Amino acid sequence: HAIKRRSDYQSPAYVIQHVELDIDLYPHETRVICTTQVERKSADQQPLVLDGVDLQLLSVRVNGADWTNYVEKEQTLVVDGLPDAFTLTIETQIDPANNSSLEGLYKSGDAYCTQCEAEGFRKITYFLDRPDIMAEYRVTVRGNKSAYPYLLSNGNVVAKGELDDGRHFVTWHDPFPKPCYLFALVAGDFDLLSDNFVTASGREVALELYVDKGKRERGYHALDSLKRAMAWDEQTFGLEYDLDIYMIVAVDFFNMGAMENKGLNVFNSKYVLADGQSATDDDYFHIESVIAHEYFHNWTGNRVTCRDWFQLSLKEGLTVFRDQQFSADMASPLVNRINQVNVMREHQFAEDAGPMSHPIRPDVVMEMNNFYTVTVYDKGAEVIRMLHTLLGVQGFRRGMDLYFERHDGQAVTCDDFVQAMQDANQHDLTLFKRWYSQSGTPVVRASGEYDQQARQFKLTLTQHTPATADQAEKQPLMIPVNTELLGNQGTMVQTVLSLTQAQQTFVFDNIDQAPVMSLLGNFSAPVRLYDGQNSSARQHIVMYANDPFSRWDAMQTLYGDYLHCQAGSAGEFAEPISTAGIVELQRSLLNQAMDSPALVAEMLCLPSFETLVQQAEQIDVDALFDARNALLNQLAEALEQDMLAVVQQLPAQAYDYQQNQVEQRRLRNVLWLYLGRLDQHQAALKSHYHDADNMTDCLGALRAAQEGNEQTFDQLMVAFEQRWQDDPLVLDKWFGLHASAPRKDCLSRLDLLSGHKQFSLNNPNRVRALLGSFAFYNPKGFHAKDGSGYRYLTDYLKRIDPINPQVAARLVTPLTQFRHLDSERKSLIETQLHRLLDTPNLSGDVFEKVSKALG
Ligand code: HT7
Ligand code: ZN
């Protein structure tokens, strides 16, 4: 298992500017002829080393003549004795029907499709599989006409016709040079939804969405989302689409969410298909956001791409930031921000604190697929967001314009991006660049000193980044701190402080009273904050802060401190709030619920168990789980009438995915999470499920029952399965609910579920729904004291790894992030990690994560 280092980058010894692919599709014997124009760039006569995995080589020709001066070794083809410029033709055979890794060319059900990012193109043909080789592609796809009426690839159709034996062909040409990871091919029979979009400059673009037969009605939201994204990118960044056609294909077997292949996006059907009956408001939201994300890649990723894979955040951090801005403009900016911050605190902080810790631009990689992480994506987006804060909307836009002006058509680095931002704004970003090279979550501490006579307030901020698994030494970063100082009458000061040293004091004059500090508003930097304030200061923020995000955040801190005190895992903070204090705060929130349903709904939610785990050095799993559960029960009992009153005021409406309704449904279902715990409301909870005309409320009822009442849960789950048993995408919700239910017999239930007719270890969505939900979101079952949960997951990982290493490597994460657990559990986990490591032929993907976890 070789290690690659960012510092070892060398420009390519040979380049390829033209590629001609001829792909003749057969399930087990697909023939690929790849003809390239190759040019030597290095002065020495080193051989051409092409990447290739699981290929059967049939022939090599140079300038049309057979070539024998080559060897196949260690997943490469080394060709020697070559002229300076030549035409290379390589013929290989591959077996898509037996490709369960879902990388390269594979079968998704009846259709053929490809996934080439990061290094999957080498499973299709021998090639220089690196993103800085950008070429123009001409692709001919051949296949049986009745089974595969659609033969798709990137760009525009330039030829098509009939062949013998019921076969046909289509030839595609993509005029934009691209790296091979953006190559795509899809062949199959689909329902097609067609539309069009007229760009700002008046060009008409055909939009085509391909979905499984019979699913056409579920495609409209995705298509509408695409049009909104296209218009938004024109308005916000002046970026127009470039080809005449934009295609999206939804497939059922896919390792991630979607893929931005040039002009031919391939999507996990989970992020395309939706109607009110079968999809929740969250599903609608995520579809819009993933559709937009892939579309935005056309500029940030495709037109300007990465020089090497260490630069992945160049396109992913930036594109996530762009899709977040889009989503904020389409719906509630506040709820969006809360959800993003929850992802950071729940998953990214955990990654920073674990064995896979890495900067947003990693330095060392064993398996690239392991670096499509919350750090590269979400922390990467936070870093871009800080630049946006620092430079302002217009300054950021100037930087983007210069970036495209300089680098369109190139493969570049994160430094190139920051340089464009710097040059466009004459703003020195030298210090800021440390965010790209330093891993870990900085800790910011705040303390205040008020001088009544001088009417002066001094705020001292310190920063310290604890050592991480990958980096011992840390330096101070540039940290923007949104600051609000609150007095009795409300906000006295609102500003952004720039913390650049280990310790800095900021002086505020003309302050009439000792203020309450509300810091890090809108999560202005991806850090942990300790401000040392007591619970009455936090309650003051909850009631009076100008920034609604800060009100939510103060409430989260109050809940968190309270729960850690109950569970014996309290860290450094003053007296927690009393139970009665939380009840009264929630009561006052319930009184405001009809005016601000979105904010109140979020403020009524306790931090997730997973977020709480990240807040303490060491936790007692059972005590923390029980404390959270006990508080939810107490709040339900104390506020039953107040909650019922709000539920009754919320209007009943026919389902529409529309902002007002979304917020009201969210509030109603949060309230059901409380009321569902009370025996007297079980009949009403069942009606909430049965009367619902939409999946959001059905699932809301199921979640409430899952937490609140086993009998109701069992009854509703039977009804759900009866209704959706033939629709695996919808049934994933049911698998997930079962797997995350804190039940004593959860392992035997998992056994039963894995025998369900819809379950398959070959389908990543099914595996994530069942085993992912168990390992990530069933703390009671997964962390069972006898280690049975750890053993159970490990048994499955040993079976999944040979089928699909990428899926196995993602699923192993909960076994590697054990830092906050007690020593007994740590040792039980280590036993399982050793079992995994001893597995014959363990993939590099799983090996990298497990070996790091074991140190
Ligand atoms: N850029 C895409 C990444 C991706 C991917 C990576 C590894 C293995 C399979 C994959 N499928 C998609 C998705 C994106 O960020 O837009
Ligand atoms: Zn992306």
UniProtKB/TrEMBL annotation:
Domain Aminopeptidase N-like N-terminal, first and last residues per copy: 19-182
Cofactors, names only: Zn(2+)
Signal sequence region: none
Pfam family, one: DUF3458
EC number(s) reported in the record: 3.4.11.2
Keyword Metal-binding: yes
Highest taxon of source: Bacteria
Major enzyme class: hydrolase
Ranges of residues in domain Peptidase M1 membrane alanine aminopeptidase: 222-435
Catalysis: reaction(s): Release of an N-terminal amino acid, Xaa-|-Yaa- from a peptide, amide or arylamide. Xaa is preferably Ala, but may be most amino acids including Pro (slow action). When a terminal hydrophobic residue is followed by a prolyl residue, the two may be released as an intact Xaa-Pro dipeptide
Domain Peptidase M1 alanyl aminopeptidase Ig-like fold, residue spans: 440-529
Peptidase M1 alanyl aminopeptidase C-terminal domain residues: 539-854
Molecular function GO terms recorded: alanyl aminopeptidase activity
Database matches in InterPro entries: Aminopeptidase_N-like_N, Aminopeptidase_N-like_N_sf, PepN_Ig-like_sf, Peptidase_M1, Peptidase_M1_dom, Peptidase_M1_pepN, Peptidase_M1_pepN_C, Peptidase_M1_pepN_C_sf
UniProt keywords, alphabetically: Aminopeptidase, Hydrolase, Metal-binding, Metalloprotease, Protease, Zinc
Entry-linked PANTHER family: PUROMYCIN-SENSITIVE AMINOPEPTIDASE
Family note: Belongs to the peptidase M1 family.
Protein name: Aminopeptidase N
Upper lineage: Bacteria, Pseudomonadati, Pseudomonadota, Gammaproteobacteria, Alteromonadales
